[in-house]
Structure formats: structure tokens, C-alpha cells
Write a structure and sequence with these properties.
InterPro entries: CBS_dom, CBS_dom_sf, Mg_transptr_MgtE_intracell_dom, MgtE_N_sf, MgtE_transporter, SH3_actinomycetes. The protein has 428 residues and is of the alpha+beta class. It has 17 helices and 20 strands. β4 and β5 form a beta hairpin.
Length: 428
């Protein structure tokens, strides 16, 4: 193995994994240590890599030819794509040890774990040999000293951890996409998951909640105080917030809605009134809406806004004032490809398309799916009986509701088939 004899594992988190042909197959998410019956440090037996579609697999160290800060390279063989399952005598180093409160002997100095290093012996065995511990200092203005000490000198690395901080684990997770971070949270014990979720800022937590199964969403929201829960709901898209609140008892819904700002709560209240399985229940109430006298240049600037999802930014809906839902009279929509082909100074009223009948709030999901597939649309307008735009159904809304209710649950999504898949590469 072309690798340093000491590797600090937190620095490997997120590093790309390549097969022998140089193709990326995933990213490192953790390392697996095997506990020993003696006091010797745990043996490191492999890495956990995250593959496409959120599948986490085991990579044996025996099959890894190179490890460094930029890449992990696999040797020849077969890559086993069976989902990784931790055994009773194993530990996930980053998940279980980062931020753990420990004492360093002699003297019993308290601190928290910020990293763990594995070292290779002359016989080629890797073990968790050193721990980076930051002292606890009671001062608010200065961080404690960082010590790198032998595993045997640290007390508190085994057993159930007390409530602990989250800074170091968050630093490992901070570059993940919301869907990948949601996936990582599902691997954590409930208490640890709730600690990490609570430490995220409101916007980040809102994005992550939208990617979690409903059960986990409810449990994380319940672990927050109600003021914080309302703040997070305000950061969610109204349709996602409505979906989450619909999982709560009506009295709890009312409490949280009352704590939200009226401008944020009102569209959520409206969405909660619609019958499940209809356009009203799955639509977003905040599509891109512009008046007919807006220019093509203004429309292009609007859909470039980074917070818009691709499905929302794919078209502009045109209506009379007011521009917030429910709008004035709905006139039609303009797809972004049409915007790219027209002169920037042209008005939207001159290029608007209205030859496809809009949805009604009561339109059932099967009919929505059929019509979107028929016309190859990524979004469709929803209008009320007064021809006012009240929202838009996007293709991601439809997919969320067509898939099984528990499709985000890893235990369901990754349930193995009768024949486990493998790829040419390296054996896990």
C-alpha cells in the first residue's frame, strides 16, 4: 500500500475513492475499527465509502493500494456493493469518537476528541494508535491546547458517551449535499442524530429535514424547542413545511403555526387545507411569477437566483397583479428555453404560452402525472375557480408522492435483493 504509516481519519472524510481504472466510485465517510478483548488499540479493518444512490459499502484495507489526502485507490478484484452493516465488535471511528469527552492520563486532563490516527505496524496491521484531544478550558476567548497522545493514555473512548459537542463531526459533514447529510444522520444513534441536527443553522437544517423520512423529521422537530422548530419551518419551502406539519397532531400544528411569522405561516395553512393526493396538497405556492410587462432579461435574472430549485427555475408563470399567490388573472407561462431564444428587451406578454389547460387544486395525482408526461413538462400551473394562480406542481413534487411513503428510509431503499450486486474493482 502506497500510504503514509500514519493517517488521521477525519482528514479522509469526503476523499474520493477510485477504482484501478481511475474512475471515481464513491467517497470516504468513515473507518471501521475492530475491538480487541485486551487493552490493545482497535484494529482498523477498512473504510466505509458512500456510493451513488446513498449506498454505503465496506472497503477492506487489504484491497486498498493507496491512501492520501486527495484520493483512496482500490486494487484489482471485485467491488462488493452489499450495504455496510456494523458488527457488534466494531466501531465507526468518526461517528462514534469525534467530540467524545475523554480524560488524558496521567493527570486526568479533560478534553474532546477532534481526530483519531491509524498507524501501520511492521507486520502491515493498522490500528487506532493516536488520538488528537483538545483541552477543555472554561475560557470563552481561547481554545484549549491540542494534544496528540497514544490511544492507551486516553480514558473514555469506549462505552456509551455522555452528551457531547458536535463541532468536529459537523466539520466532517459540512460539505455534504443536504440529501447526503440526511443519509449520514440516519446512520447515527437517535440521541446523536438529534444533537447534530440541533447544531445545524436553521436554513441548513430545513434543507436536511426535507430529505429525511417523515418519522425522522418528526422526531428531530420534536427534540427542538418550539421557538426553534418554528424558525426552521419558516426556512422550509411551504409545501415541505406543510408535509411535515401534516404528520403532527392538529393542536401541535396550530402551536407551531402561531409561532411562525404570519407571512410564512399563511401559505402553509392554506396548503394544509387541501385534500391529500390532489394538486393542492402537493403544489408549491411560491413559483416564479412575473407580470406581462416584465422583460425577458428580468425573467432570466429571476430564474438565475441560486435558491431556486431546477424544477422551479425551469419556467416563469405570467399573471396580472398581485404577484403572490393567489395572483390576479393567470395568463400563461414561458419556459426558460424560450427565454434564451428571445431578445432581452421583449415583453413576457408577447411570448406567453397558454395552450395547455392548468390544473385545479382538486386534480388527482394520477391525472397530474398523466398530463405532465403527455406534454413533457417539469411543472404545471394550478389555478382556482377565479382563474387566479395559486401554485405550481413540479416533477419533484410528483415523484415524492408517487414513490412509496418510506422511500427515503435507508433500511427500505437499500434492502438487498436476492443476488447482491458487484462491480469489477476491489473486493469489500
Amino acid at each position: 500500500m502506497s500510504t503514509p504509516t500514519r493517517v488521521y481519519l477525519a482528514r479522509l472524510a469526503g476523499v474520493a475513492v477510485f477504482d484501478p481504472n481511475g474512475d471515481q466510485v464513491g467517497r470516504v465517510r468513515d473507518a471501521v475499527g475492530r475491538l480487541r478483548p485486551t487493552q490493545r488499540p482497535p484494529e482498523v479493518v477498512g473504510l466505509v465509502a458512500e456510493m451513488p444512490m446513498r449506498r454505503r459499502i465496506f472497503l477492506s484495507l487489504n484491497r486498498i493500494t493507496s491512501i492520501d489526502a486527495d484520493a483512496v485507490v482500490l486494487g484489482s478484484g471485485t467491488l462488493n456493493l452489499r450495504r455496510f452493516e456494523k458488527r457488534p465488535n466494531e466501531l465507526l471511528v468518526l461517528q462514534e469518537l469525534l467530540d467524545r469527552r475523554v480524560q488524558v492520563e496521567p493527570g486526568g486532563q479533560s478534553g474532546s476528541v477532534v481526530d483519531v490516527a491509524m498507524e501501520c505496524s511492521r507486520g502491515g496491521e493498522w490500528s487506532l494508535a493516536r488520538v488528537a484531544v483538545r483541552e477543555q478550558t472554561g475560557r470563552l476567548t481561547r481554545r484549549g491546547h491540542l494534544h496528540q497522545v497514544e490511544w492507551e493514555r486516553v480514558r473514555g473512548l469506549s462505552g456509551i458517551a455522555d452528551s457531547r459537542g458536535t463541532a468536529n463531526l459537523l466539520s466532517v459533514l459540512e460539505d455534504m449535499r443536504p440529501a447526503d447529510l440526511a443519509n449520514a444522520l440516519q446512520d447515527l444513534p437517535d440521541t446523536r442524530r438529534n444533537e447534530v441536527a440541533a447544531a445545524l443553522d436553521d436554513e441548513r437544517l430545513a434543507d436536511v429535514l426535507s430529505e429525511l423520512p417523515e418519522r425522522d423529521q418528526v422526531e428531530i422537530l420534536a427534540a427542538l424547542d418550539r421557538e426553534r422548530a418554528a424558525d426552521v419551518l419558516e426556512e422550509m419551502d411551504p409545501d415541505d413545511a406543510a408535509d411535515l406539519l401534516s404528520e403532527l397532531p392538529p393542536p401541535e400544528q396550530d402551536v407551531l403555526l402561531d409561532l411562525m411569522q404570519p407571512g410564512e405561516a399563511d401559505p402553509v395553512r392554506q396548503l394544509l387545507k387541501y385534500t391529500p393526493g390532489t394538486a393542492g396538497s402537493v403544489m408549491t405556492s411560491e413559483p416564479v411569477i412575473l407580470p406581462p410587462d416584465a422583460t425577458v432579461a428580468e425573467a432570466l435574472a429571476r430564474i438565475r437566483e441560486p435558491q431556486l430549485s431546477p424544477a422551479i427555475a425551469a419556467q416563469v408563470f405570467v399573471s396580472r397583479a398581485p404577484m403572490t399567490t393567489p395572483t390576479g388573472r393567470y395568463l400563461g407561462m414561458v419556459h426558460f428555453q424560450r427565454l434564451l431564444r428571445e431578445p432581452p428587451a421583449d415583453l413576457l406578454g408577447g411570448i406567453v404560452v397558454n395552450d395547455i389547460d392548468p390544473l385545479r387544486p382538486t386534480t388527482p395525482l394520477p391525472e397530474i402525472t398523466r398530463r405532465m408526461a403527455t406534454y413533457d413538462l417539469v411543472a404545471m400551473p394550478v389555478i382556482d375557480r377565479n382563474n387566479r394562480l395559486v401554485g405550481a406542481v413540479t416533477v419533484d413534487d410528483v415523484l415524492d408522492h408517487l414513490l412509496p411513503r418510506d422511500w427515503r428510509d435507508r433500511d427500505v431503499a437499500e434492502r438487498p435483493s436476492t443476488a447482491e450486486p458487484t462491480l469489477d474493482g476491489a473486493d469489500g
